[in-house]
Write a structure and sequence with these properties.
VWF_A, D-Maltodextrin-Binding Protein, domain 2, Mg-chelatase subunit ChlD, 28 helices, alpha/beta, eight-stranded mixed β-sheet, vWFA_dom_sf, seven-stranded mixed β-sheet, Nucleotide_cyclase, 778 residues
Length: 778
């Protein structure tokens, strides 16, 4: 076995918090490991420190960094590491986010054939594994907890102002055979420093001494003496070399962007920093660019309230100086929010975008053949809607997670609602809840997923699924690159074909937005850095990097089909109503149909009887629901009876049960008892979500309001605990909605009572009322 002499070196050890959590699969742990190494490389590079020797420890690693001033390890590195971790976490879900324990020490480390060893290396790991460091990280909302040894604090931290020694706290560490003192801090969320109490000493009265007047020297003699003393030094000072220029702190530039653009923009930001450093005559770092990724909804929420939320810093990062969203619609959405809240000190100054990427339909080969695109690449919204309405297999990103999701939602809703622009008026029409729910059944959005993460699910579970996503994400998918936050690079899968919209194609244009905080003083140097950063992003080298990453040139002409017309989206678009409509319209309903089977329902109604009209109405209204929705059927006369229990996958059973020869029961029907019983059935499931709807179809012929405790029944109907339960009454006897008190009851449950005149004529209105009862926005 070979041995080498021990070598003095700085030791840095890191450990990922909760790396072995049961919620983390092997795939999650790989993403965490890749993210840890990437964050360390980025932090060391920004702090201008070498990578050095390292050994992997599974859930962490240690680095040996010799020949570097030790103060550099605690001056900028902790802050750069915290920033790199925040950047990683902004792009990843809860299972792949990273919080880190760090320990720093210095000492002698030896080597043999099995690796590194030494007492000082062991000492570093005792600090890393100590309970005080675990507790510091657990009690911090930040991403980093740092422990330095007592020696390192006394000899390095204490004498390095840039390390901010005041934020460190001493803790006793007892770990295995080690008992020592560690100095611990949380650099990205330092605890406030307790002020040192002022010690007031009593005033001492000193005895007065007699004044002594000294002779005043003649000023001519003083000046002459000074000149004689300085004269010999003149040549020496004139010939001396100028003192070394000390670099000023670089300008901090915070850039907010999307999860799709963030990886490429971080590379561009690093290249910009290097270019600025190389161009400076004193080799000083001019700027430190922090790129933070956020979802569409997260960025809109934080910017829309001027970054004034209590947890905006924690959830969305520092206030941005520049914002590069995926689309200009993001700017319109934030501007609409800011306009509703006067007094917020934030203004947006957009500049032309740095790249482009259209929204495409990414489809496997079998679905491409079924869609029959023109020239093998062009489709229309009409052809997509026709294919989507005939079966499963279509999806899109979440409109709150990405601009791609919002653009796809706006485009498809415009087509289905037949509206030129989705304004507030258009989004509050009577048919909107019904049409939106149908649209969500045809092309449902994938909750919390952007384009990359959505294609990640398709890569992991390949099948017959077509997705409306960005062209850039399809390029990444087909090249086997990393997708979103959870999919590392892989072997190339079977390619998806991007199909383009012939007209009204949604396009992401990645505008460059300067965010000015008008309640803060101007920072002229930062504005200069912003201008230089924008110039760099528009330069040929940056455009080439963007193109290599899957984005189109900002003119859209450097590859792929040339799009004819872009989707028109204006500032009047009701973005918030669209997001809410999608969220509400995607919920699975719970609907209980209650049909009156009293003898009075045998009376004629148009071409048949009242009960035949009631069963036909049930079959028509069932068309709005799928097998995943919970539906049920009950009848009522003097008592109630469950015909088809409330459950999923019951639509076929209800169609069979609601036949024209529905049997009637003797006696008078108790419509009020049926309302109470139906409400109880719907509310019995305490864990169900969304909105319930009870649809009563009756003639109310025997209903006697004077024989019912209407205030008590109204209170039961009104009570919405634990779930919102609405009541729609369809009356087959004109005028009975009012006289039987059913209008009053239905209004108490936020719905209505309708006197039916014709199934054919009234079915559109009733379909809208059923949809409004289930998916209306509050």
């Amino acid at each position: 076995m070979s041995h080498s002499a021990d070598k003095h070196t700085s030791i840095l050890a890191v450990d990922v918090e909760s790396y072995g959590d049961v919620r983390r699969t092997d795939r999650h742990q790989k993403v965490v490991r890749d993210g840890l190494y990437a964050a360390l490389h980025r932090a060391l590079d920004r702090a201008e420190l070498p990578w050095g020797y390292h050994e992997d420890r599974g859930d962490g690693l240690f680095l040996l960094i010799p020949d570097v001033p030790k103060g550099e390890l605690v001056a900028s590195l902790p802050h750069e590491l915290a920033a790199a971790l925040r950047e990683h976490n902004a792009d990843h879900g809860p299972e792949t986010q990273i919080r880190l324990k760090v320990a720093i020490h210095a000492g002698e480390v030896g080597s043999d054939d099995n690796g590194k060893h030494g007492t000082d290396l062991n000492h570093t790991f005792r600090l890393l594994e100590s309970q005080p460091l675990r507790s510091a990280l657990a009690g911090s909302p930040g991403v980093l907890a740092l422990a330095v040894s007592d020696w390192f604090y006394e000899h390095v931290v204490k004498h390095q102002p840039a390390a901010n020694p005041a934020i460190y706290r001493s803790h006793t560490v007892q770990q295995k055979e080690t008992k020592t003192t560690a100095w611990i801090c949380t650099p990205d969320y330092p605890r406030p420093v307790t002020p040192t109490p002022t010690l007031r000493l009593p005033t001492v009265q000193w005895p007065k001494l007699p004044k002594v007047r000294l002779p005043r020297p003649r000023w001519q003699a003083v000046v002459l003496t000074a000149l004689l003393l300085l004269a010999p030094m003149t040549n020496l000072l004139a010939g001396a070399a100028a003192p070394a220029m000390r670099c000023a702190n670089p300008v901090q530039l915070n850039v907010l962007t999307s999860t799709e653009m963030a990886p490429t923009l971080r590379l561009l930001a690093l290249n910009f920093e290097r270019k600025s450093y190389q161009a400076d005559e004193n080799r000083c770092r001019q700027a430190r660019v922090l790129v933070v990724a956020d979802t569409y909804g997260g960025a809109v929420d934080a910017l829309g309230q001027g970054w004034s939320g209590r947890n905006d810093l924690r959830d969305h990062g520092p206030e941005p100086h520049v914002w590069i969203p995926d689309s200009s619609i993001d700017i319109d959405h934030v501007a609409a929010r800011l306009a509703r809240v006067p007094g917020i000190g934030a203004t947006l100054e957009p500049r032309p975008g740095i790249a482009r990427s259209p929204i495409v339909l990414a489809a496997p080969k079998a679905m491409v053949d079924a869609l029959r695109p023109t020239d093998g690449k062009w489709v229309t919204w009409q052809s997509i809607a026709l294919a989507a309405s005939s079966g499963d297999g279509f999806t899109r990103p979440d409109p709150r997670s990405s601009s791609a999701g919002m653009l796809a939602t706006i485009a498809y809703y415009r087509h289905r609602l037949e509206q030129p622009e989705l304004t507030s008026t258009a989004m509050t029409g009577d048919s909107v809840p019904r049409v939106v729910h149908s649209a969500e059944r045809e092309i449902p959005y994938a909750p919390d997923l952007d384009s990359g993460n959505l294609l990640c699910t398709i890569r992991n579970r390949p099948g017959q699924t077509a997705a409306l996503v960005s062209e850039k994400a399809v390029i990444d998918y087909n090249r086997g690159r990393q997708l979103g936050s959870d999919c590392s690079a892989s072997v190339r899968p079977e390619a998806l074909t991007p199909l383009y919209l012939q007209t009204e194609s949604p396009v992401q244009d990645y505008p460059f937005v300067v965010v000015r905080w008008t309640d803060r003083p101007e920072h002229h140097q930062r504005h200069q850095v912003i201008d230089r950063f924008y110039e760099y992003l528009m330069s040929p080298p940056a455009s080439a990097d963007l193109h290599n990453s899957g984005f189109r040139h900002r003119d859209g002409l450097d590859g792929g089909p040339v799009l004819s017309t872009a989707l028109p989206v204006g500032p009047a678009t009701a973005f918030d109503l669209i997001q809410t409509a999608a969220a509400v319209g995607s919920t699975h309903p719970r609907v209980l149909f209650a049909v009156d089977t009293g003898l009075s329902m045998s009376a004629p109604f148009q071409r048949g009887t009242r009960v035949q009209a009631a069963t036909e109405l049930v079959r028509r209204l069932l068309q709005q629901f799928g097998d995943d929705d919970e539906v049920g059927l009950m009848t009522f006369g003097t008592t109630t009876q469950d015909i088809v229990p409330l459950a999923p996958d019951q639509t076929t059973a209800i169609r069979k049960a609601a036949r024209p020869d529905f049997p009637l029961t003797p006696g008078d029907s108790d419509v009020y008892g049926a309302i109470e019983a139906g409400m109880e059935r719907l509310r019995a499931d305490k864990n169900a979500r969304g909105t319930d709807l009870l649809v009563i179809i009756t003639d109310s012929a025997t209903a006697d309001v004077s024989q019912t405790d209407m205030p008590a029944l109204k209170m039961k109907v009104t009570g919405q605990d634990p779930r919102v339960t609405r009541l729609l009454v369809v009356n087959l006897l004109t005028g009975r909605c009012e006289s039987a008190g059913l209008t009053e009851l239905a209004k108490a449950a936020a719905s209505s009572c309708v006197d039916l005149t014709s199934v054919e004529d009234d079915i559109p209105k009733l379909s809208n009322l059923v949809a409004a009862g289930l998916w209306r926005q509050e």
